[in-house]
Amino acid sequence: MFTGIVEELGEVIAVETLDDACRFRLRGPVVTEGAKHGDSIAVNGVCLTVVEHEGDEFTADVMAETLNRSSLGALTVGSRVNLERPMALGARLGGHIMQGHVDGTGEILERKPSENWEIVKISLPADLSRYVVEKGSITVDGISLTVVDAGPDFFTVSLIPTTLALTTLGIKQPGDPVNLEVDVIAKYVERMIGDRATGEGAAR
Question: Where's the Lumazine-binding domain (predicted)?
């Protein structure tokens, strides 16, 4: 489990393209401290497994399914990425519960800066819109954010200076893709209500 509180901005050091996958080498001094083979690290909101670790760098394999369902396939050498280690049992939940399982991708539509914050408008796939509500939580590139406005095919978030300075949302521009993960609790509630309405829950 992750909380969507980005620990550091990492960097893609190398990309190796395989037949049906990719291997990324990433640099992140904070998240690699004490890291070992098999550990999980969220990269732009995608839970990846550490394959190798040396110094402040680690490698992770990304299969075709993940490349197709996320924006990781657009990463190149030099790309900046949001990095977060899994939450520790008993630690404070600073953001909201997230799994690192991307539900889809959106696109930065526009940015409206102001003196103390910035409003960012992001496109929303039609099949995810029912999970996004005003003042609800959503994960964008691994960042736990609060929805300001929710439309049928877009939503907006308000970014404070800290988020702009310490995450990829400070540098992404209109047209750039972002990973989206909706509230997992909403998905479970929808499934349970649907089963109850159809009687499937009683049959199991």
Answer: 1-96, 97-193
Q: What is each CA distance from 193 to 94, 103, 158, 198, 200, in whole angstroms?
A: 29, 20, 32, 9, 10
Residues 6+ apart with CB under 8 A from 188: none
In 3D space, the residue among 160, 128, 129, 130 whose CA is nearest the CA of residue 144 turns out to be 160
Q: Residue 31: which of 23, 40, 19, 22 has the closest Cα? A: 40
User: For 31-88, how does the pLDDT look when each residue is reduced to its tens digit (9 = 90+)?
Assistant: 999 899 999 999 999 999 999 999 999 999 999 999 989 999 999 999 999 999 998 7
Beta carbons of 22 and 72 less than 8 angstroms apart: yes
- Is the full-model pTM beyond 0.85? yes
What's the rounded Cα separation, in Å, for the pair 176 and 99?
23
Cα 170 to Cα 81, 108, 161, distances in angstroms:
11, 12, 9
Phi-psi sector, 112: left (phi>0), alpha (psi -120 to 50), beta? beta
Q: Are 139 and 47 in contact (CB under 8 A)?
A: no
Q: Is 91 exposed, middle or buried (0-12, 13-18, 19+ CB in 10 A)?
A: exposed
Helices (H) and strands (E) in the chain, counts: 4, 12
Angle at 37 between CA 96 and CA 141, to 5 degrees: 30
